[in-house]
């Protein structure tokens, strides 16, 4: 019923049928999520989850040193990162969460946009042991849910998730490998810019990890998978996706790592996908196949491969435009514009 009403409202706007393309799909989806023919976007947020990865200290999978995670968190807090620039430009609230960075941030006790939610000082190196315990994975998920619930109570109904964690493209590749069955090679890209040789080492290392943790034999235990090869920022994002769907939010899905977290969230509750708008097609090798696996059609293809929620932030104004055309455009009837002649 509502779907037909929305489609009719969209079709009756003063434009050729279908002429607003993907914006029409978003308008329909947003109306369905909010249960109305007049959706509104309120207090959009990007939440960036940060966490360190034990594997990063080995240098086998990441061109940049592990310390960059904490340094970038400080950069977020000082307003100097790409995600700060884009959220400022589009009036999007930015929240930064320490999910498990290997650094003490107690010098920022009262920063208004920083949430201390550290599970541990980084994960274990999954070449040696599971990245985290099941208890830690569950605690991270619960914290992600709590953060999003708080934002919902403040009126936010549109959200995107970003991440910062040196080495986390590797977690994302391993999760993708387990959940899609595609080879490690198909799931692994250059991350922050691995050379040909570094990429080969990364692939070999991740193949070893996949064997050690029996990722081929994924047995529907998504929390188990998360604890073996995940990261605290990824686990918290999983909880955040689940709660955002629960709160009937419109969710913008960012790049490779954010989509890998969504793969896990989907395992836990497939309904999450109904709330997701795929912001962009990341330049990271593997993202395209991940999107295909989800039958997702991303809005933007800008060759971006940064993370931080930057793609999600750029797509929020498009969602706003979709909602605005639905609510503000005249219909053929109200504007006295003639419709196409019947065949
Ligand atoms: C300066 C800098 C800023 C970043 N912002 C996001 N990432 C991105 O790169 C990291 C993943 O790539 P890999 O797995 O190759 O380490 C994540 O932290 C991600 O958010 C950054 C990376 C760097 C170096
Ligand atoms: O697609 C992404 O989000 C991405 C790709 C490379 C490095 N960091 C993030």
TrEMBL record:
Pathway annotation from the record: Nucleoside biosynthesis; alpha-ribazole biosynthesis; alpha-ribazole from 5,6-dimethylbenzimidazole: step 1/2
TM ranges: none
Top-level taxonomic group: Bacteria
GO process annotations (BP): cobalamin biosynthetic process
Protein family per UniProt: Belongs to the CobT family.
Function, as annotated: Catalyzes the synthesis of alpha-ribazole-5'-phosphate from nicotinate mononucleotide (NAMN) and 5,6-dimethylbenzimidazole (DMB).
Protein name: Nicotinate-nucleotide--dimethylbenzimidazole phosphoribosyltransferase
Lineage summary: Bacteria, Pseudomonadati, Bacteroidota, Chitinophagia, Chitinophagales
The encoding gene: cobT
